[in-house]
Amino acid sequence: MKNTPGWQAIEQWLAAKELKPFVFQEEAWEHYLHGRSGLVNAPTGFGKTFSLFLGTVIRWINENPDYRSKSVNGLQLLWVTPLRALAKDIGRAMEEALHELKVPWKVGIRSGDTATSVREQQKKQMPEVLIITPESIHILMAQKEYAKRFATLNTVVVDEWHELLGSKRGVMVELGLSRLRGLRPGLQVWGISATIGNLHEALEVLMGKPSPAHVIVKAEVKKAIEVHCILPDEIEKYPWAGHMGLKLRHKVLPVIQQSNTTLLFTNTRGQSEIWYHQILKECPELAGAMALHHGSIDAELRIWVEEALHTGTLKLVVCTSSLDLGVDFRPVDTVIQVGSPKGVARFLQRAGRSGHRPDAVSNIWFLPTHSLELVEAAALKDAMKQNLIESRMPVVLAYDVLLQYLMTLGVSDGFNAKEIWAEVQGTFCYRDMTTEEWQWVLAFLTTGGDALQSYDEFRKLHLVGDTYHCVSRQQAMRHRLHIGTIVSDAMLKVRYMTGGFIGLIEEYFISRLSPGDSFRLSGQNLEFVMIKDMTVLVRKSKSKKSIVPSWNGGRMPLSANLGMMLRRKFHEAMAGTAKEEEVTILQPLFDLQQLLSHIPREDELLMEQIETKDGYHLFVYPFEGRLVHEVMAMLLAWRISQQHPITFSIAMNDYGFELLSDQPIPVDDTNAQELFSLDNLNIDLQSSVNATEMARRKFRDIAVIAGLVFQGFPGQHKANRHLQSSASLLFKVFEDYDAQNILVRQSFNEAFFYQMEEARLRETLARISKDRIVITFPQRLTPFCFPIKVDSLREEMTSEKLEDRIKKMILWQ
Amino acid sequence: MEDVLHLFRGQHWRLSAGRAAYWEEERALVIADLHVGKSAHFRKAGIAVPANIVQDDLYRLQQLITKYDPLRVIVVGDMFHSEANNEVQYFKIWRRQFPHIRFELITGNHDIMAPEIYEQLEIVSQPFLQLGDIYFVHDLKDQPQPLNGQYVFSGHIHPGVWMVGFGRQKLRLPCFYFGGEGAVLPAFSAFTGMYSVEPEASSTVFVIAERKIFRV
């Protein structure tokens, strides 16, 4: 292969730049030129793009000796990227290489941002390389004679596959690939992924069917990461609870000043607003050299920030997960993580945002927001050493995405049910789907199913000959506007009275404000004036006091890997074998915990019973993340409440949970173990957890993706509260009148899988059944329980009669 | 459905957990925010909604009429959610059971149907109503100035209150609210949201807990 003209051309081109290919690149080219498909596993910044892109160029040169004069060749390579922002940079890099190699290929971009004129041009003549988002593949497939566009396609590369894998956007990729493989049976498919726990599964999902011919090419490059921990000077004075971390900001400022460019990651948008404000207040000289970046900030402003990061004109960007992904920001040399990153993979990813060059060291500073979080720093370091990286679980049986996809094919050229069923069954996502379910899906699209058959709106497809078509032009138009699986939240635009867009804010937050109130967004202090045409009008505020909005979401649970490492670290602290500074500095806190209560060993579960003026508390510490704790707390509360009428208020964090009652909680050595029993778990879960409510919440997105709820035409946004109620009403209709509805079933499955993390719950209970349960009765609140107790988000579980409860209560005024 | 007797301004009021107040002296059943046609309105917008909501609401009203045997039913606003639709037709048939009862509507912001439709339904509609020293109006804010010793009965906001207890317990319940300026009735329809009222110290509040009602 190395003697082929294409390979030679590439080698010479690189040599002219005094470069030579990485081993993994050559390996990938070799596999590609042999016609294989597979997955490249490489961190960003190591030429992963070229490991596949140049492969296609090599083959093109090999197969076309007259390549220098061959233009207008039709689409050769489809490059799928999860992020629009990535497309431009990748396109630029490809164009540069093609130009220097004198290959007259064109590189096009197709995403939601692509101008209509460019789209029209692409319709007439596809470029040789098209960089595209998963949604845009489906949009192309929703157009008449879409097959023509892919007539010459021979390679698809899915970039950042690990990002798409665990989401419904990944399912869109799977379905798009299934159709493309149907059109082009010899299609070669490659993925590019960062390291995740289930790389082989990631390959299988991409390929649909397993085959020994599929390969994984690993870049054997070790990225040097240095983790620094910001330690409080006096651990005794550092707060036991909190999530802001501002107390340590004086230690962060020198780090920022000594760095070239710093990214400061926070876990929530609200937190980023506060940090931005505080730093600016203390370092006014940073004005103009610092910026804020999160999901609710105007897209144009975000793009500006990203570009400024490229050129190195910014010293500091305060950001959220909005900057987790994306292009290389070469000037960034320091990353600061405020609070727990919740998982090893995310921490690594964020660390990797600094020191992007292959030989550079990534520097990440961990800033704990409360004392115990310091242990997490030690846990993260160990987890990184052992490469304990989380898996991304692929989405399976997403019927909503399938309904959308079939509608997509229905609005373009129609589809033959037999042919498409074979393709769909060949995907990982739908390989366990039954023929009955397929028939149900078809029937649902043609009749609306048992519950909706009296509504014309839900009769979407008609069988003409042997193909299913959408005959309504209006429905086709509606559908094309709503292709995708990202369901927007109820967000309102925020704009100055005098004009000028600032960002987005949740409807829920604004509904609690009165005109004249001040709030903070995009780093600005704003006074709420009024809401007009779904836009929040504001003016600059001089008020000293302002509210920071709390955006929903962003409450990721601690990962299982990190939880396990944490338990080990506590064990080590208890045994006195811990060597890390982060752990040893906490010794006074551990001593207090041990004095008041106990520090659990790795094979122990700690429970604390404490009485305060609020009532009777029971704290439990499984260290399994807030979602598992929520369900476990409900389960425990329900099992206790079966013995006699009692009401609990429930709170949790990533380390443990609390049951609080107005009466003593009857838990002791004699019954503790059975409260965690796996026996009757299914029945008890159904009685204790409001699975229907959880499923109803999941159903909202499902209904939108499946096209049951129309989100409105662009510009004439439908009030989201309206959308919410219609989705929940549909849910009720289906539950009552269409028991077979697989979308309802899907929403329950999603609730069990994502909301309750059922599998992890079972593993936890199994672990606890082997653990020794230690119950203590501390005289006052312990360092462990304090952060949970102050959490204000609470849920309830009761077995008392409503009237009995009211009789014990007073009116709140 | 239980009720409690509330002696107020020398009059006997039976406050029912069925979200209605019965004024014994006037033999008047007073309700607010019935929202007939709301689910049909949703369905017309392409949103499937169970149809039996209006049946359930009107069945409850029927039970209350049977229990108290009123001569008049006063609806303090938002009797109908939107334009005339098939639920309004359902109401028309339902209405025939009680030809002897006078239905009086104090118009609210949702009552936008043409006057002849109210006539066909045999409903007397008016922006407010004075009966003794009680002044009925949909929105408490639209009370007359000065009040001249009258007391206002209103609806509109679908009031609810928070109850709190030991062990950080909290509950929000629909209520009858008797404040200094006037009274606010709970929304009659089950298909409505709730607005949290912050009670004044001098107010009297009755909370509805399923089929029971309590003074708190």
TrEMBL record, chain A:
Coiled-coil boundaries: none
Classification via SUPFAM superfamilies: P-loop containing nucleoside triphosphate hydrolases (SSF52540)
Top-rank taxon: Bacteria
CDD domains reported for this sequence: SF2_C_LHR (cd18796)
PANTHER family in the record: ATP-DEPENDENT HELICASE LHR-RELATED-RELATED, LARGE ATP-DEPENDENT HELICASE-RELATED PROTEIN
Family as reported in the entry's similarity comment: Belongs to the Lhr helicase family. Lhr-Core subfamily.
NCBIfam families assigned to the protein according to its UniProt record, in alphabetical order: DEXH_lig_assoc
Protein name: Ligase-associated DNA damage response DEXH box helicase
Organism: Chitinophaga chungangae
Automatic annotation (TrEMBL), chain B:
Molecular functions (GO terms): endonuclease activity; hydrolase activity; ligase activity
InterPro entries: Calcineurin-like_PHP (IPR004843), Metallo-depent_PP-like (IPR029052), PdeM-like (IPR026336), Pesterase_MJ0037-like (IPR024173)
Gene3D superfamilies, per the entry: 3.60.21.10
UniProtKB keywords: Endonuclease, Hydrolase, Ligase, Nuclease
Any Pfam family the entry gives: Metallophos
Residue ranges occupied by any Calcineurin-like phosphoesterase domain in the UniProt entry: 27-140
Top-level taxon of origin: Bacteria
EC number: 3.1.-.-
Root EC class: hydrolase
NCBIfam families: P_estr_lig_assc
UniProt protein name: Ligase-associated DNA damage response endonuclease PdeM
Organism: Chitinophaga chungangae
